[in-house]
């Protein structure tokens, strides 16, 4: 799933490559992905892309006062094309959800490129909104403070009010915006905290260490990601991970074997030596089978 660093990098990429171009049209191949109807998608035809930004994990393409907002969800991605076929993609065929055609700013003979929004797999959760104000998107309206904008003091207040496991608190977008499954694993590993620790019970030193780890992990990932082409962002993300998706491999800090806890539709990874005092956490799938 694209998280704060990748979405920030995609926004920077679009500012460099799409800003100033004129929208020719948007082709919808997955009608369920489009969540709004007023204004209609054809309202952006002929308008100019003026910028791009990010709200948590939402990508915002600014088009002459309108906002084409995308949530890529778990399996979505943006593929930039220097040239696009003129024939629209067939609805319901393949991974393409939406294709945006962009002409050069001067409408001359330059290449008419653009991008495809795609989604792999059978669970179609990618969402596209065309709105006048990003706060019209329900998910944006519910966002908590951005993970890279919140102060230590406000972060501490947020944690003290949450009696849930810290892994879930970090990934709850209404509490803190931008962090998903992968970077929460990385942050907790850097902070040397168990993913099952209760947020409200963290000491002042633990809270401070967690905040510093969050800032460090996300800032480093943004620095690695911004400037990359959209096509290379996924591999760049994987290459920088210490524990997430590295089950069975040695921890780069202590050499212990990275372990995994699996849930119904996702999993987390951690290092026992660095995070849990050498203890292995119970795998929730196995725990259910034993009962």
What does this molecule look like?
The structure is a single chain. The chain has 291 residues and is α+β, with helices and mostly antiparallel strands. The chain is 29% helix and 21% strand. It is built from nine helices and ten strands. β2 and β3 form a beta hairpin. The longest helix is centred in the last third of the chain and has 22 residues. It is elongated, with a radius of gyration of 21 Å. The protein starts with a helix and ends with a helix. The C terminus is likely disordered. This is DNA-(apurinic or apyrimidinic site) lyase. It catalyses: Hydrolysis of DNA containing ring-opened 7-methylguanine residues, releasing 2,6-diamino-4-hydroxy-5-(N-methyl)formamidopyrimidine. Belongs to the FPG family. Keywords: DNA damage, DNA repair, DNA-binding, Glycosidase, Hydrolase, Lyase, Metal-binding, Multifunctional enzyme, Zinc, Zinc-finger.
């Amino acid at each position: 799933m694209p998280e704060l660093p990748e979405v920030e990098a995609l926004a920077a990429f679009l500012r460099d490559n799409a800003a100033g171009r004129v929208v020719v049209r948007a082709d919808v191949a997955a009608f369920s992905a489009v969540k709004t109807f007023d204004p209609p998608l054809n309202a952006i035809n002929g308008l100019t892309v003026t910028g791009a930004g990010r709200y948590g994990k939402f990508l915002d393409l600014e088009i002459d006062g309108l906002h084409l907002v995308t949530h890529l969800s778990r399996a979505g991605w943006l593929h930039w094309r220097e040239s696009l076929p003129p024939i629209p993609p067939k609805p319901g065929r393949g991974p393409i959800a939406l294709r945006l055609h962009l002409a050069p700013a001067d409408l001359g003979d330059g290449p008419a490129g653009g991008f495809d929004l795609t989604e792999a797999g059978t669970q179609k959760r990618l969402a596209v909104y065309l709105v006048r104000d990003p706060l019209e998107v329900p998910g944006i309206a519910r966002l908590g403070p951005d993970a890279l904008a919140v102060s230590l003091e406000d972060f501490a207040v947020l944690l003290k009010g949450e009696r849930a496991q810290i892994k879930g608190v970090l990934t709850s977008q209404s509490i803190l915006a931008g962090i998903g499954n992968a970077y929460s694993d990385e942050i907790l590993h850097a902070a040397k905290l168990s993913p099952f620790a209760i947020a409200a019970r963290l000491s002042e030193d633990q809270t401070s260490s967690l905040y510093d780890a969050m800032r460090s992990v996300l800032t480093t990932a943004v620095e690695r990601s911004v400037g990359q082409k959209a096509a290379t962002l996924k591999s760049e993300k994987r290459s920088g991970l210490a524990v997430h998706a590295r089950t069975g491999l040695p921890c780069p800090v202590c050499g212990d074997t990275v372990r995994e806890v699996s849930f119904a539709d996702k999993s987390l990874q951690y290092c026992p030596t660095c995070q849990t005092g050498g203890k292995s956490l119970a795998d929730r799938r196995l725990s259910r089978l034993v009962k």
